[in-house]
């Protein structure tokens, strides 16, 4: 495309200072005549590009030229670079890094990214991210084995729609053929992913199905729990700061509404002797039952 070629010519001139029309034609894979027409268009647009004939001549830009003087103000340049830096930090597409490098040079702004994101786990896992992105963009149906909440492996055939990051986890949103409905699949539970390369068509689902939340709103319980001070780093990581209070002895008191799910029991038990549930009594009783069941298993 002509616009991309003009962009490439400017980038080449910014990085090499001076180049011959023949070299530009070879790099852009067009005729020398086309290169000279492009130079005329850029000159008419206000870009200070000029040519020199003879030995040592060539095509060049004024030494202090940056693209923003012609097209964008400071705020617009900064917004574009920050948006690209954010996408680059997610490490989703290598093309973003190339675009960021080029635009930084064109704007005359080379700076450290304002954001760095590392979504990798501490242990090695199957990296299906690139495969899923390709399947979504090309509308390819996929198949995989999925480990559901009941602890069962099931074979799923899915029309992938979107990758979603929520609550520290990645999910695949897609139309599940076995359930005939929109479903969310946690990426960490997906194995044996296969791209069938079979193209699916838009189902034109109603808005309420497409906007379906990842997880249903869970029931809540008012938890009151005292935790030893040296485990404060865990408490501040996992509970809203608004429900955490420091006691006179330095311990922390968690007092507020939390989701009433199985993770809560596991979480409390993981604190060991460093925590005690004060309320509700029903939760305290459940924890005691689980402790007793654990004790029996260790003495079997």
UniProtKB/TrEMBL annotation:
Domain WYL as annotated: residue spans: 128-193
Lineage: Bacteria, Bacillati, Bacillota, Bacilli, Lactobacillales
A Pfam family that the UniProt record links to this protein: HTH_11
All copies of domain Helix-turn-helix type, residue ranges: 5-56
Stated name of the protein: Transcriptional regulator
Gene source species: Pseudolactococcus plantarum
Domain spans labelled WCX: 221-294
Domain of life from the UniProt record: Bacteria
InterPro entries: CBASS_pafABC_assoc_protein (IPR051534), HTH_11 (IPR013196), PafC-like (IPR028349), WCX_dom (IPR057727), WH-like_DNA-bd_sf (IPR036388), WH_DNA-bd_sf (IPR036390), WYL_dom (IPR026881)
